[in-house]
Amino acid sequence: MTSRPAVMYVCVHNAGRSQMAAAWTRTLGGDRVEVRSSGSQPADAVNPAAVEAMAEVGIDLGAVTPRVLTREDMEASEVVVTMGCGDECPYVPGVRREDWELEDPAGRPVEEVRPVRDEIRRRVEEMLRSLGVEPLPWPRPAERIVTFVCNSNRGKSQMGAGLMRRLAVPGVQVLSAGVAAAPREKGVNDESAESLEAVGATLAGEHPKQLTPQLAAATDVLVVIGGAQPGPELEGHLPADVRRWTVDEPSERGIEGAERMALIRDEIDTQVAALAEELRD
């Protein structure tokens, strides 16, 4: 056993509930808690609806991979929380065990996953307090969230976010979203990703995400790139600081391909640099 409490979350596929619980515990517990998650029959990837639901509250599961359950991990944990794996989760003497009955997000749309996400947060906070760990606030009061927005969240908003992350402004968390986000499986625009890689930025692990009322309300600075128009469902949720960046369209001058993308990237980068300097003050 470690000097800090170790918590392990287990479900069948390690693709939804256990991953959300582990992410909430890392976020709310910080470095005061050791966190593991695994599955008795791990899936190939995390449930896209779970990834999207957590992204809405500013927590990224995009790079997480399901792991197989081992008895050794369970024995090294102070608390093991199971979620629907039943007898496939072995009993380990001396380890506190809880079973959380939660709806399985598998095959469900994100609208039905959000209540599960929020209930998991409530239970995680309760569990942390039982271990003597007071949950940290989320979003962090001292951390400003900057969200870049375009229509599909495949190109310009992803580029703005990638360029801002490259600058690593202290106390600033960078997100991106779309007012009419493309399906997750479409991924980001390949030319956008390649253009950023050329200047040392990356979009690895990124995918289109929807600008939801929850994400809008958690945002401190909302940067709308191009002509995207937030819909009526966001009324009353947008932050006070909403900025619109116009970006020249080189294709109107017959410029296409990598040259077009580089010009768009550089124009966004100039505005990102100015915003970063402002946020550092």
Automatic annotation (TrEMBL):
Annotated Pfam families: LMWPc (PF01451)
> Does the UniProt entry include the keyword Hydrolase?
no
Q: Which domain of life is it from?
A: Bacteria
Q: Does the keyword Signal apply?
A: no
Example GO biological process: response to arsenic-containing substance
Gene3D superfamilies associated with the record: 3.40.50.2300
Q: Which InterPro entries match?
A: Ptyr_pPase, Ptyr_pPase_sf
Keywords in alphabetical order, please: Arsenical resistance
The Phosphotyrosine protein phosphatase I domain, residue ranges:
5-130, 144-278
Record's SMART domains? LMWPc
PANTHER family in the cross-refs: ARSENATE REDUCTASE
Official protein name in the record: Protein-tyrosine-phosphatase
Q: Which organism is it from?
A: Kytococcus aerolatus
